[in-house]
Every structure is written in C-alpha cells, then in structure tokens.
Amino acid sequence: MKKSEKRTKVYLLDRTKIADPVSFSSWKDFLPKERWEKTVRPVREEDRKTELAAWLLLYHALKEWGIPEESIRADGAYRYGGHGKPERKKKEVCFNLSHSGKYVMCVVSDVEVGCDIEKIQKVRWKLAKRFFSEGEYDILEKLKEESPGAEEELFTRFWVLRESYVKKTGEGLGISLEGLDFSGISGYKGKKNGKALKERFFEWEYDGYRIAVCEEKDGEPELVVCSRTIDNCFL
What is each CA distance from 124 to 98, 121, 133, 160, in whole angstroms? Predict the structure, then answer.
C-alpha cells in the first residue's frame, strides 16, 4: 500500500448552478479546444452543463494539486488509455470523473484512482441478481423484508463500490463483476473471488447520493463540496 504526503481529494459540484455553455460563450476561451468541442456537442442542455462542470472540477482540482494553469488548459494535454480511461499525458497526477443527477464528481491522487457517485435509487433486482454476490443479494432481500426502503441505499452502495473499482483499474464494466463481493467489507477492503482486494475503498453519503473512491493508498481522502460562485471557485 502506497504512503504519500499528498492527500487524495474528492470534489463535488452541482451542475445545475452552471449556465449553459452555448449561451455563455466566454467559456470557449477558457477551455482547451477539444474540451470545448466536446462540451457544446450534446443536444440536451443538461448534458452540456455536465460536460462543462466536469472540466471545471478537473481544472480546479489540478490547480489545487499544483499543476501549472497553462499545462492544465493546454491543447493535447489529455488522452484516453487503453480502456478509454481519461488521463494526463504526462501522468504527473491521476484523476477520475463521475456524475449522477445534479452532481458532478472529480477525484485527484498520486496513484491510480476510480470514483463513482449515484443518486440513491430503487433496487434493480435483475441487475443485482446478475452482478452481485449471493451474500449481497441475500442481504438486500432480508433488508427489504425487515426495513422496507432501506435496501435502496445499500443497493446503491454496492453499485458505486463496484463502479469505483472497475474505473480504478480502467477496465470498466466490460470486465466480469460476478466475483466482486462487498457484503462483508471491512478495513476498507472488498473481495474478489473470495480473496481480499489490495485496493482500499472510501465512502460517503451526501444529499441523497452515495459516493465511493477506490485506490491503493492509505489515508482517507478529503471531500470538498464546491458551493461558492463559479467565478470564485474556478477562475
């Protein structure tokens, strides 16, 4: 397990507070060319806001990490890895992004890291039957009987833990998830095929959302909710 003097940081931003980038064209000069093109491409306004919010969070996170502004905003400074995971070409810092509902999330670290955020939702039983372990599924069924409604948060928790793991590895949901088990997670570790994972998992519940971060590193990350005005927070 890696020890580091730099603490992993997790950022949240409410994307609904951001103006549509199409109607606020000054963002065009602020974003790298490829990022601007990706931001204005979606047809739906909420998708454009999500793209912009993700960039703003990443910019803010990298700037606080100590990456020079000209390097953050430089054209061609980013690429996609073999499994489509975005990364810095220089790899001087690792990051990951996620979004759900009104929130966009960004995590930065000095080791490979994955994250996920999901609004607490009703159990999708077919999905749980397919991807969850027998132990996890049994816990959900029992919880539904004993405390109806409580199973929704647990289902979401199990899901974001999985997502954070596969996003950390960069392999995405295309890999087999059946071997993962978080029914008895302890010491911040889950299991795969009966063996404890080397990765550690950190979790939060915030405003009706479940959040998870996965990395091979000691020390709990810091959660930062960006609630200031956009100009003060990012410019």
Answer: 20, 8, 14, 14
